[in-house]
Amino acid sequence: MKTLLRTLLFLALIVWLGAEIFFPVVAATTFGQLIPNTHAAGQIVGSLLRTLHSIGLVSGIVLLALLALAPAWHIYRAKSVLAPMLLLLAMIALTAYSQYGIIPTMERDRIATGGAVDQAPEDNPARIDFNRLHVRSEHVEEGILLLGIIVVALIARAETTASR
């Protein structure tokens, strides 16, 4: 049972962080291939971002459940899973903020620009807000990734202390 729990825990971490790491590569490739049609590239990347967030929310909930069970199954000490669980809550909150706060507002701004943000005048308030939210979205995803790397380190540390 311990091996199964650890396997599921690491799998959930790998899936979420792997997707977080791979997403910018996919986004850059998409925009690079569709240079003349940035609107289509944005639609594709937006759809992929929603998928990334779904993966993150499911993985985050699975991780929280597994870490909550770990002390009861004598896999990790309760004290060693507290910090990773708090960071996972922050990661889930940031993911939900991006999914349900930033993305819908960016979509509203995109529609307000006439559908293609890059074709709107640079001083268009909706375009300005869209660009501001785009930068915020990038920072949120970077924060999720950074917190995830810290979670990996904390779980590795919990593994080390559990084996003593």
Q: Explain this structure to me?
A:
The mean pLDDT is 94. This protein has helices spanning 2-33, 38-69, 78-112, 125-162. The protein is an all-alpha fold and 164 residues long. Helix 1 (2-33) runs antiparallel to helix 4 (125-162). It contains 4 helices and no strands.
SSE order and pairing:
Blueprint: H1 2-33, H2 38-69, H3 78-112, H4 125-162
Helix pairs in contact: 1-2, 1-4, 2-3, 3-4
Taken as a percent bin, the fraction of beta residues is under 5%
Low-confidence stretches: none
**Number of H/I helices:** 4
Could you give the order of the helices and strands?
Answer: HHHH
Number of strands: 0
Based on secondary structure, the structural category is mainly alpha
Q: Please give the largest β-sheet.
A: none
Helical content (DSSP H or I, runs of 4+)? over 70%
Radius of gyration: 19 Å
Q: Estimate the mean pLDDT confidence.
A: 94
What's the shape?
A: elongated
Terminal-residue CA separation = 19 Å
Number of domains: 1
Question: Which descriptors apply to this entry?
Answer:
164 residues; mainly alpha; 0% strand
